[in-house]
Amino acid sequence: MIFNIPGHIAMIQNGLFCDRLRNFCLGMIVKTQTRRLNRGIYQVGKDYAVQRKRGVKAEPDIRIVMDRIWEEREVTNTVLSYISKENAWAEGGYQPEEYEKVFRELNPKWDGFSRWAFEFHAIKLGEVE
Description:
The protein contains 3 helices and 6 strands. The chain is an alpha+beta fold. It has a single domain, classed as Roll (Sulfate adenylyltransferase), CATH 3.10.400.10. The strands form 2 sheets. Strands 3-6-5-4 form a 4-stranded antiparallel beta sheet, with no helix packed on it. Strands 1-2 form a two-stranded antiparallel ribbon. Strand 1 (24-25) and strand 2 form a beta hairpin. The longest helix is centred in the last third of the chain and has 11 residues, at 96-106.
């Protein structure tokens, strides 16, 4: 999975050394969620490589395991509400409004009504789940 926002891979790596249930470690943010416009090939329980951008080799020491995948869909005719504070924090330490702004900048063609959310945890390569 591609994480092209500077610092997000470091946040994922922090999860290797932290209690992932608490989602923090020594004041460091642990990124445990991401949102995309489509579901792609991702499946719960499978592990995936972590890349800084398309066409770049995967990070050599970590992979992420999908814990949960869900579609966020607005059921009314209004634009999707801000995500919760907890989910925005899990996205990389954002406030909800700040996260939505970044998401819209990264996804200018987003229709505002539907997107996929992925919850994951990081594992060291060679670690058995």
